[in-house]
Automatic annotation (TrEMBL), chain A:
Main location: endoplasmic reticulum
Gene source species: Meristemomyces frigidus
Species lineage: Eukaryota, Fungi, Dikarya, Ascomycota, Pezizomycotina
Top-level taxon in the UniProt lineage: Eukaryota
Family: Belongs to the EMC1 family.
Signal peptide, first to last residue: 1-18
Protein name per UniProt: ER membrane protein complex subunit 1
Domain EMC1 first beta-propeller: 18-432
GO CC terms, sorted: EMC complex
A UniProt-annotated Pfam family: EMC1_C
Alphabetical UniProt keywords: Endoplasmic reticulum, Glycoprotein, Membrane, Signal, Transmembrane, Transmembrane helix
Ranges for domain ER membrane protein complex subunit 1 C-terminal: 711-929
């Protein structure tokens, strides 16, 4: 009797509010991320040439361009560049003393205001961009106003070209097209020339470096020559560096074995050759060149050698007059990996070296150490026994006399954290690794799950044994009493101030679930959903080659563990509270609850679905001709349903079509075929392969995302319909609900049979659908999940265009909303309103409220231990999480509960009792003595 | 100013006050009764004079008469709940069908009254029951129970109106179980 009453009560509460004002910013969390910054596109720069305050600019591997305040690591502004692909080269440059930063990605060169990130101009080039540079001309007359940009572009096999773009407007000043089909590599500007470096492929397949020098003013070719001998360069990978925008740009390359380093000062044909020391037989794995990026700084550069276990560096000087390169000094070899950064102050060049435990700065002129700071801790977490290494760094140095007075260094660490070191102390860190999350799941800590199981056992056993169990549990808990008493005052204070950060073990509501995220580069990290600002652990779980995809799938089969299945291997299990790998003793069955049911396994190949029973083929689904499978969503394995029917206003029942073996399949016309773009949505019975419902939509914009969802007895999908002669382009959200029968109180042909087999008879559901016109495209749909499924549902939709996540109450979409008439009294009692084809997203539904959440791709939900609440975690570029109560928090006190008022009332009543008690006694005694 | 009008007749109350037609002797010696006070003795004497019949002392009713009287009284008691029904019905109608503390309390009282009355039926009619009218008393009691049942029926009607009676399919939905499929399909990512 309790369940239907409760569900009736929750039905009565029409959820109109998704986020309360006092909960916003408290129950939700958001990491506004950029992604791992790239070394070549990260720098300090003054957004306002008049002031000395600088910001850190970066264009990350995720294609996000942004400025970060070096004081606290907060994001100042951010822009998502189109083409969020890590394989594409992208560039970010800022001219000295300029208030614009110029970015280049794909074929777009764009200039952004350095202060607030507004777009100044945008220009498209013919081919894919190979390089973008700022022209720093020394002839004075060009220096007024914005500095011009030079862009080198060239598609594979097509003609490459250099364009000069006006710094203020982005207009093309001149274009130079190269002859031949040499691959454009890089462009470099000195004060007098523009050098374009192209790679010429010889007949034998080797590469030769071709340098073309252009006049910056007219764009005419001045000179052209070839560097490197016939068979030196096999691939472009061994070209170490092409220094740009310095007094004497250099080209450096090595042979494939990293045994010799060859350096050419661009503009001269002389090549200096240096042998790379082979220390103790270790092969040099990587050679990097760090050179200053300012046209009037000393032409010194540093070459950074790296082996698997150590690193060292040499500093070279270039004689500007004759183009001779000489080795000045070496920095000693140190164990582990290191990072070098180059900073300039006037003409002086400083190199900063960051190792595992130390930060030191040297001048480029001599090897004397100007400043040295021990780094005790980077302030980030890592896996057990993992040594955190710096990957790359950028520094800002201020020098007084012969010593460095202050140094700020932003370092990307091997854990994926981006931190700032002020001197040697870590000031802030940004967990940029979260931006490359590809899979995430919620998992319950083992203690919490054990607690939940005990409660469950108490609830389900008979009262006497439940009481005994509870008593023994409380007696067992008595041993924690002293500790509790000690911490009690603190807890009370915390409870009042709302700052309680109770630990994972004592989480009675299930809010402190652990979110494990697998990232693109093979790491896995864990967050506490109740206290998300702290990363619990962060470890490497897969050793991936560069750009190798591993498609991880995370699952938490039981408490305290997470299982990761990927292309790199299946069934790796980890302890979620510390990241320790668990030794797999038994092969883990992911699905777990096989019970006695016969298993049908189905897989999706490129163009068809195939199911097998006991390794014999069961059924096969192939889409209609001209159609391909777009996506398949099976009903979640763990999808609790509180009630098998819907109670109508007159208290009759409409039975839901509940079958765990449902899947929503989407097929769409393959883009190459035919002008009419259609998509068909099928509801399949995955045991028999029967199609239970199908609907086809014509004229669909197939380039837009199609989001699908199936849960309980209903399905939802969203698509964008293309503009046609009769209708404009628009987004639609379709919701369908499956019933056993549309006649109330009828359970359909199978009535109340306890067991049934879909292969023998598949009763067809009666499907009601409604289509709503929605204001913007939905990229992903999800649904809230609660422990027992009593709480009403909310449909979670990611809105990529407005950077938001919206929670639509199911009742607003209910397919039983009456069409063309007002709701009757009984329907009103159910909360049904007249159908309106246009569904506006109520601003109150926005779970992300004021936050701008960019680039979200996926969203997962998880039930908390209390019925009212569902945890939400969304990731993509940003990471956003919250907890929502679609039927309000009916089983927990909200933040609006005034504890002070309650305690005040109790105290006042107590005092009142004490004051009044003697008065009352006296009056009673007096009354006895009074004669009537 | 020729002729003066004759003085008006004195008003009735003056006459009443001044009349001493029934001079009553005061009860307590010296103090006279206030003007206009009519002593009860005077009234009774008047009445007795008018009815001209002497009051005979009340004679004890015979056992038969006593039985009749008791039966009459018992019927009155038995039908009392029925007389309250219309008022109760109006009250119930007024209090609405929503689940509120007020209507819940009213319904509770409505149930409590008849049930306690039926339980206390023996003590209610004990005084009126004699050896001789026992058989007739059975009918009276039946009527009493009937009336209380009517009141109960009113309560039931009210409870039904409030939707608290498990008379519909939805009330038994929690005891209906979902069907268990014999097969289970799993998606295996290829």
């Amino acid at each position: 009797m309790l369940l239907p009453l409760l569900s009736a009560a929750t039905l009565l509460l029409t959820p109109s509010l998704a986020v309360f004002q006092d909960e916003a910013f408290h129950i939700d969390y958001h990491f506004a991320l950029l992604g791992a910054p790239k070394e070549s596109t990260t720098f300090f720069h003054q957004p306002n040439p008049a002031s000395k305050a600088s910001l850190i600019y970066t264009l990350s591997e995720e294609g996000a361009l942004g400025a970060v305040n070096p004081r606290d690591g907060s994001l100042v502004w951010r822009q998502l560049l189109q083409g969020q692909h890590q394989s594409n080269a992208s560039f970010l440059r800022a001219g000295e003393g300029q208030d614009l930063v110029v970015s280049g990605s794909l074929n777009q060169v764009a200039a952004w205001s350095a202060e607030d990130g507004r777009l100044a101009w945008r220009t498209a080039t013919d081919g894919v961009l190979r390089d973008v540079e700022i022209l720093e001309l020394s002839d004075g007359k060009e220096m007024v106003g914005a500095k011009d940009a030079v862009a080198l572009s060239g598609s594979h096999g097509a003609q490459s070209s250099v364009v000069r773009l006006d710094g203020a407007t982005g207009a093309v000043k001149w274009t130079y097209e190269f002859d031949g089909s040499d691959e454009a590599y890089q462009v470099s500007a000195s004060s007098t020339h523009i050098y374009a470096i192209l790679l010429h492929k010889t007949l034998l397949g080797y590469l030769r470096i071709r340098v073309v020098s252009l006049d910056p003013v007219t764009g005419k070719k001045i000179d052209e020559y070839m560097l490197s001998s016939e068979n030196e360069l096999a691939t472009a990978d061994t070209i170490v560096s092409v220094g740009a925008n310095s007094a004497s740009p250099i080209i450096a390359w090595t042979d494939a074995a990293h045994s010799t380093l060859k350096v050419n000062v661009v503009g001269s044909k002389a090549i200096s050759s240096f042998t790379i020391d082979q220390h103790a037989g270790e092969t040099v794995a990587r050679v990097q060149v760090h050179a200053p990026y300012h046209i009037n700084s000393l032409s010194h550069f540093l070459v950074h050698y790296e082996t698997a276990t150590s690193h060292w560096a040499d500093v070279f000087h270039v004689d500007v007059n004759n183009g001779k390169v000489t080795k000045a000094y070496s920095l000693p070899k140190l164990a582990g990996k290191g990072a070098f950064s180059t900073s300039t102050s006037d003409a002086n060049v400083y190199f900063t070296r960051i190792t595992r435990d130390e930060l030191s700065t040297v001048s480029s002129a001599s090897h004397g150490i100007l400043g040295r700071w021990p780094v005790t801790s980077f302030g980030v977490v890592s896996g057990i026994g993992e040594v955190i290494e710096p990957v790359h760094a950028v520094s800002e140095v201020s020098v007084k006399g012969d010593a460095v007075s202050a140094i700020r260094t932003v370092v990307l660490l091997s854990t994926g954290d981006w931190i700032l070191l002020r001197g040697g102390t870590a000031t802030w860190n940004r967990p940029e690794i979260l931006a490359s999350t590809v899979a995430a799941t919620f998992a319950m800590p083992a203690e919490v799950e054990a607690f939940a199981e005990r409660l469950q056992a108490e609830a389900s056993s008979n009262p006497v044994s439940a009481y005994v169990q509870r008593l023994t549990r409380h007696i067992a808990e008595l041993k924690d009493l002293p500790a509790l008493l000690v911490s009690f005052p603190q807890r009370v204070v915390n409870g009042f101030l709302g700052t309680s950060e109770d630990d994972l073990a004592s989480d009675n509501f299930g809010f402190h679930q652990i979110i494990t995220c697998a990232t693109r580069n093979g790491r896995m990290l864990a967050l506490d959903a109740g206290n998300p600002n702290r990363i619990l652990w962060n470890r490497q779980v897969a050793d991936l080659k560069k750009e190798q995809a591993w498609n991880p799938r995370l699952a938490s089969s039981k408490g305290g563990e997470v299982t990761i299945n990927s292309q790199a291997g299946t069934g790796f299990r980890y302890n979620i509270s510390n990241g320790e790998q668990l030794v797999s003793i038994l092969p883990v069955d992911v699905e777990g609850d096989a019970k006695a049911a016969r298993e049908v396994r189905f897989t999706m190949t490129d163009s068809a679905l195939d199911a097998t029973v006991d390794s014999k083929p069961a059924w096969h689904f192939s889409p209609a001709s001209g159609q391909t499978i777009h996506s398949l969503v099976p009903r979640p394995v763990n999808d609790p349903v509180a009630s098998i029917g819907k109670v109508l206003g007159d208290r009759r029942v409409l039975y839901k079509y509940l079958d765990p073996n449902l899947a929503l399949l989407v097929t769409k016309s393959s883009l190459t075929l035919g002008p009419s773009n259609t998509a068909t949505f099928y509801v399949l019975n995955t045991v028999s392969g029967a199609i239970l419902h199908a609907s086809t939509h014509n004229d669909i914009d197939l380039t837009s995302p199609i989001a699908t969802l199936i849960s309980e007895n209903w399905l939802a999908y969203s698509f964008t319909s293309a503009a046609s002669a009769t209708a404009p382009k628009g987004q639609q959200l379709v919701i369908g609900e499956l019933f056993e029968s549309l006649v109330p109180n009828d359970r359909g042909p199978l009535t109340g049979n306890q067991n049934y087999s879909s292969t023998i008879s598949t009763p067809e559901p009666y499907t009601l659908t409604h289509t709503y016109q929605i204001p913007e495209a939905i990229s992903k749909l999800a649904v809230t999940r609660t422990k027992q499924g009593i709480t009403s549902r909310q449909l979670l939709a990611l809105l990529p265009d407005s950077g938001a996540i919206v929670g639509i109450p199911y009742n607003a979409l209910n397919p039983r909303r009456p069409v063309g008439r007002d709701a009757t009294k009984d329907e009103q009692a159910e909360g049904l309103l007249r159908y309106n084809p246009v569904l506006e997203f109520d601003p109150k539904w926005l779970l992300s409220h004021q936050r701008e959440v960019l680039g979200l791709e996926e969203v997962v939900t998880s039930p908390a231990l209390i019925e009212s609440t569902s945890l939400v975690f969304a990731w993509g570029l940003d990471v956003f999480g919250t907890k929502i109560s679609p039927s309000f928090s009916f089983d927990i006190l909200g933040r609006d509960f005034n504890k002070f008022q309650m305690l005040g009332t109790v105290a006042a009543l107590g005092v009142l009792t004490f004051v009044v008690a003697p008065l009352v006694t006296r009056k009673q005694v007096d009354q006895r003595w009074k004669f009537l | 100013m020729a002729g003066q009008l004759p003085p008006p007749p004195p008003p009735q109350w003056v006459l009443d006050l001044t009349s001493t037609t029934t001079p009553s002797k005061p009860k307590s010696g010296s103090i006279p009764d206030p003007p206009g006070f009519t002593s009860t003795t005077a009234l009774t004497t008047k009445q007795s004079k008018s009815s001209s019949k002497a009051i005979t002392p009340r004679k004890q009713p015979s056992p038969d008469e006593m039985d009749t009287l008791k039966l009459k009284k018992a019927w009155e008691l038995a039908l009392a709940p029925a007389k309250q029904l219309p008022m109760n019905a109006i009250g119930m109608y007024m209090s609405g069908n929503s689940l509120q503390i007020f209507s819940i309390m009213m319904v509770f009282m409505l149930f409590k009254g008849p049930i306690t009355a039926v339980l206390n039926i023996q003590s209610t009619f004990q005084r009126l029951e004699t050896e001789t009218n026992r058989t007739q008393m059975l009918g009276v009691k039946a009527a009493f129970v009937g009336c209380n049942l009517l009141a109960l029926a009113l309560g039931l009607w009210k409870v039904n109106g409030m939707g608290l009676l498990p008379t519909t399919r939805s009330d038994w939905l929690a005891w209906e179980t979902a069907r268990e499929p014999l097969e289970r399909a799993y998606y295996v990512p290829s």
